[in-house]
Design goal:
Layout: E1 2-6, E2 12-15, E3 19-23, E4 41-49, E5 54-60, E6 64-71, E7 73-78, E8 83-87, E9 90-95, E10 100-106, E11 113-120, E12 130-135, E13 145-150, E14 158-159, E15 165-171, E16 176-180, E17 186-194, E18 196-199, E19 202-205, E20 209-213, E21 217-222, E22 226-234
Parallel strand pairs: 13-14
Antiparallel strand pairs: 1-20, 2-3, 3-4, 4-11, 5-10, 6-9, 6-11, 7-8, 7-10, 9-12, 13-15, 15-22, 16-21, 17-20, 17-22, 18-19, 18-21
Domain Pirin N-terminal: 11-120
Binding site for Fe cation: 58, 60, 102, 104
Keywords: Iron, Metal-binding
Length: 237
């Protein structure tokens, strides 16, 4: 088993006033040759956007872009004709493919919105752009991991152009769970959303990131009431 630990306070940080963003991997002005990606996981940004502010229309190409709101409401618009609100409990995916332009704004003027923006390098390029968004509420399980993304169109959650599986978990203190990887050449990047988790003996706190590969199964133990995001991705792509 190989591992890599990214403590929360070692992430890149950019505070633009209206946007407070933490970068687990190199992004924009934060560049670290040792933290370019974890396999096909290229970007993991922890963003807080002020009331009524946001990202104006901007382009993307050949990237799987996933948004997971943690608090508040995010207004999305794109040149594919989608105009939606993404809220806590939702997951959104946009396959940029041959090119897409979109904007994201905090829908509310009385509270900030906090969300994860995640980029996964696809296994197919120049695909027709597409958009999907679902609520994960019906997928949620008590003290168990539940899948929110996979490569399979008919599977639970949204799907991506990559052999990637994302799972969320809400765990009570002292709960233990096991995660079995889907493919032998994949790795898992765990991101602690709340609480405290121990994975294969490594103690992790809120917003710590921990990557594991060359492993078949990992054990997860909550040492506090906790919420975790697991991102399984190919290590070679």
């Amino acid at each position: 088993m190989k591992t890599i630990l990214h403590k929360a306070d070692t992430r890149g940080h950019a505070n633009h006033g209206w946007l407070n963003s933490y970068h687990s991997f190199s992004f924009a002005n934060y560049q670290d040759a040792e933290r370019m990606n974890f396999g096909a996981l290229r970007v993991l940004n922890d963003d807080t956007v002020s009331e009524g502010r946001g990202f104006g229309a901007h382009p993307h190409q050949n990237m799987e872009i996933i948004s997971i709101p943690l608090e508040g409401d995010l207004q999305h618009q794109d040149n594919m004709g989608n105009s939606t609100v993404i809220k806590q409990g939702d997951i959104q995916i946009m396959s940029a493919g041959t090119g897409v332009t979109h904007s994201e704004y905090n829908k509310n003027r009385d509270k900030a919105v906090q969300f994860l923006q995640i980029w996964v390098i696809p296994n197919k390029v120049n695909v027709t752009p597409r958009y999907d968004q679902i609520s994960t509420i019906e997928l949620q399980k008590e003290n168990e991991l539940y899948q929110v993304l996979s490569p399979n169109k008919n599977d639970a959650g949204v799907w991506a152009h990559q052999d990637a599986w994302f799972s969320l978990g809400d765990f009570s203190k002292e709960t233990t769970s096991n995660y079995k990887l889907h493919m032998p050449n994949n790795g898992v990047y765990a991101f602690i959303l709340e609480g405290a988790i121990e994975i294969e003996g490594q103690k992790l706190q809120k917003r710590d990131g921990f990557g594991l590969w060359d492993v078949d199964t990992i054990e997860i133990k909550a040492t506090k009431d906790s919420k975790i995001l697991l991102m399984e991705v190919p290590m070679e792509f």
